[in-house]
Amino acid sequence: MKKITLLFLTGAFTVVSVMAQNGQLTRTITQDKVAITVELKNQNTNKILPNWEQDFEGLNDFSLNFDPWTVNDVDSGATYSIEGYSFPNSGNPMAFIVFNPANTTPPLGNDPALQPHGGDKFGACFSSMPPNTNDDWLISPQITLDSNFCISFWVKSYTDQYGLEKYKVAVSTTTNEPDSFTVISGSNPLLAPADAWEKVEFNLSDYDNDTVFVAINCVSEDAFIFMVDDIIIETETGISENSEISVRIYPNPASDYLKVEADKKISELILISSTGQIVKSEYFNNRSVTMNVSGMQKSIYVLQIRTKESVAFRKIQIR
How is 125-171 classified by DSSP, letter by letter? Predict the structure, then answer.
C-alpha cells in the first residue's frame, strides 16, 4: 500500500463545554493554526464486502435509521450538540446517528479527529447530558451463524478531554430487546482510544449454528462522541479478496446495468444482498460482461466475480 505524506497548515481542534441561554448544553470546537503531517494511504474504494458488513455508506446523512440494523436509546436523554455547527437531529435524544463530517454546516471535514475509518460516514453516539449516562444500542439484524464466526469493527473516541468512550459487545439468541443480551466483551466496559481508530474482534464460536442478534452498546458517562465504523460479521475462515484478479466495475452506483471487466475470463457473477442472500447470478465466458440490475431494490450489495482460477468480491450500490 503506497503512502504519501503531505505537510500543510490546518486547524487543531479543542473542545470546551458551554451552557447556552436556552439551557441547552453544547460542546464547542475551536481551531488554532498548527502545522501537521497527514499520511494519505492509497486505498481501494471497491473494498470487499464479506458475509455481513455495516459501513454506513449506504445510509442517509444524519439519519437515525440504520436498516436492516436497529437502534435502541434506552437512556432517552438529550445529547450534546457541537456549538457553531448544525446538522439534522443535533442535540436530540438518540442512540446512534449516521455522521458525515463533510456535510455539517459549516463542514467539519477538516477536523482530523472526526473522520471516518473508511468512506465518508461512520456511526456516532453522542453523549447524553447529565444526569443521564449513555445506554445506547446498535443491533444487527437476526443472523444465522455458521461455524467459527466473529464480529470485528473499528472504534474511536472523538476526544479524551472528558474521558474515553465506553462500550460493550453483546449477543442475544432470542430477541433484539436489550434485556435479552449477554455481554461477551468482559465484565468491564471497553475503552475506545482517542488518538487513532482501533480494530476490535470478538469470536462468536459459542453461538455456532445459532440464530442471533449482535449488538454494540455505548455506555459512556458524560463524554462526547463514540465513533464506530466498518462492522463485519463473518466466518474467521472466510474468503478474502483475491488481488490476482484485476476488476473494473462501472457504473457504480448503478441503476440499469453493471459492466464488469477483468483480466481473466469471468465465469460467473453473483449478486448478494446485505443479509447474505443470493439475489441474482449469471454465467459468462468473457473478460467483459454486463449484468442487468434494472428493477432491483435500491441497496448496497456485494458482487462476487468468479473466474476459473479465483474469486473476487466488490461492493456495489444500486439506486
Answer: EEPBPTT----EEEEPPPEE--SSEEEEEEEEES-STT--EEEEEEE
